[in-house]
Amino acid sequence: MIRYFLSAFLFLSASASAGTLTCAGTVGELAYHGNGKFMLKLNTMNTPVFFCNAEADWVVSGTSYKTGQETCKMMYSTFLAAKSTSATLDYIHFDGDDVPSSCNDFSKWASVSIRYFKLK
């Protein structure tokens, strides 16, 4: 019986859960970073994050979502238009192992999957 509880405790403490987070704000930075990778930073975020790749399908650990190359280009274009017009992203939903619990607590060079976003 004790072995069962110990095994369950070790399993629960060792299992990692992917992050999921919704943020809002205006596009503060939009960047291209070699090999087709794009980065985004909202004014409510502390650092830019990688969100897609225009040259390959984008998959990050901790989520089963996949962003294709054409979707990546569409998202980049949308974020570029939002930046140029100062439009507000009502919310943007990030998923993956690199996603923190707060919009202002991302690690540098984090990779995220964008599941959903909405412009105001």
Structural write-up:
- The chain is an alpha+beta fold and about 120 residues long.
- About 25% of the residues lie in helices and about 35% in strands.
- It contains two helices and five strands, in the order H-E-E-E-H-E-E.
- Strands 3-2-1-4-5 form a five-stranded antiparallel beta sheet, with helices on one face.
- It is globular, with a radius of gyration of 17 Å.
- The N and C termini lie far apart (about 55 Å).
- Mean pLDDT is about 90; it is low at about 1-15.
Give a quick rundown of the structure:
This protein is α+β, with helices and mostly antiparallel strands and 120 residues long. The protein is 25% helix and 34% strand. The model is unreliable at 1-16 (pLDDT under 50).
List the total number of helices.
2
Low-pLDDT runs of 5+ residues are 1-16
> Strands across the major sheet, in which order?
3-2-1-4-5
Structural class: alpha+beta
Helical amount: 25-40%
Strand content: 25-35%
Largest sheet: 5 strands, antiparallel
Oligomer classification: single chain
Shape verdict = globular
Tell me the distance between the termini. 55 Å
Q: Kindly report the average pLDDT value.
A: 89
- Tell me the Rg in angstroms: 17 Å
Number of strands: 5
SSE string, helix = H, strand = E?
HEEEHEE
